[in-house]
Amino acid sequence: MAKRTNSGGQNGSHRTLRVGEAIRRRLSEMLARGEIHDPAISSLSITVGEVRVTNDMRIATAYILPLGGEGADEALAAMRKRQGLIRHHIGKALTIRHIPELRFELDDTFDRMDATRKLFQDERIQRDLNKPDTDEESGTE
């Protein structure tokens, strides 16, 4: 029987999750130590929220955000510009045969959390959440 693979899914294998976390740690170290020599990067405190690696291990997407969100576009452009150098340093630190292509995106996790929080504060949502469950709605007979 053929084994199914999901080449771009979010639910990666243990290996892709381990590699993603190793890249995230190394990238965070590089940023904290100032190893990436670019004024747009070194002038900001950039956090790396997550690194997602595709199941085929070809692409790693790092989700970054400067603290406070100020200068996000400049930081993103600078990280993309230095992608080759960053990949080289990560490759020296990791013990895998092929280092994935690095891509950088802004981390919108906090924006999504704020939007969700605002949604739950809406009076219509609160009214629906506070409705008592009936036997019909819960599916029991």
TrEMBL record:
Listed under GO biological process in this entry are: maturation of SSU-rRNA
Domain of life according to the entry: Bacteria
Q: What is its main location?
A: cytoplasm
SUPFAM superfamilies listed in its UniProt record: Ribosome-binding factor A, RbfA (SSF89919)
InterPro entries per the UniProt record, alphabetical: KH_dom-like_a/b, RbfA, RbfA_dom_sf, Ribosome-bd_factorA_CS
Q: Which GO terms describe its molecular function?
A: ribosomal small subunit binding
This protein's GO cellular component annotations are: cytosol
Q: Print the keywords alphabetically.
A: Cytoplasm, Ribosome biogenesis
Spell out the subcellular localization from the entry: Cytoplasm
| Role this protein plays | One of several proteins that assist in the late maturation steps of the functional core of the 30S ribosomal subunit. Associates with free 30S ribosomal subunits (but not with 30S subunits that are part of 70S ribosomes or polysomes). Required for efficient processing of 16S rRNA. May interact with the 5'-terminal helix region of 16S rRNA.
Q: How does it assemble?
A: Monomer. Binds 30S ribosomal subunits, but not 50S ribosomal subunits or 70S ribosomes.
Into which family does the record put it? Belongs to the RbfA family.
Name of the protein: Ribosome-binding factor A
Q: Which organism is it from?
A: Pacificibacter maritimus
